[in-house]
Amino acid sequence: MKQQNYSNYKRYYPPHHFIFLPFTGALTIFCFIKAYNEQDLRCQWILLGVLSFCILYLAIMVRQHYALGNQNRIVRLEFRLRYFEFFAKSSKKAEKQLTFGQIAALRFTDDSEFEALLNRAIQENLSPDDIKKSIKNWQGDYMRR
Question: Span 9-32, mean pLDDT?
Fold first, then answer.
């Protein structure tokens, strides 16, 4: 498996991202173009365009909503466990000082960098992107499918 780092950690699901979504988006655009050009069937094309847009919107939002909700809970639990392993105390105080994005970015740090980068994130209010860019030994998330 390829070594994961900042430039390649994002993941796509090709059937969804590169086939279904573009097809549905193109269908929506096609329908509205046809509605503009074909006066006699305008109502039918608008209806089909609105329907395809609704399917596109729902496909994007529902998929993201459920997946991100679960992912966010898991990332928080990972942070709490890791924090407890390092400091043998609750992470509640640190969590109140960090945004979820910062917590998510810290998951890619190596154990040798975790404490220092956590302290920097709190003290300097580093953005999630700055945290990721500061990681010297990126720990990839290879469990994603």
Answer: 92
Which of these, 131, 142, 115, 90, lies nearest to 6 by C-alpha position? 131
CA 17 to CA 15: how far, in whole Å?
A: 6
Q: Under DSSP, is residue 5 helix (H, G, I), strand (E, B) or coil?
A: coil
8 Å CB contact between 55 and 24: yes
Compute the Cα dihedral for 37, 41, 47, 48 and give only its sign.
Answer: negative
Amino acid, res. 54? C
Q: Does the pLDDT value for residue 16 go beyond 90? A: no
pTM of the shown model: 0.65
pLDDT given at position 144: 64
* Spatial distance between the Cα atoms of 83 and 25, rounded to a whole number of angstroms: 43
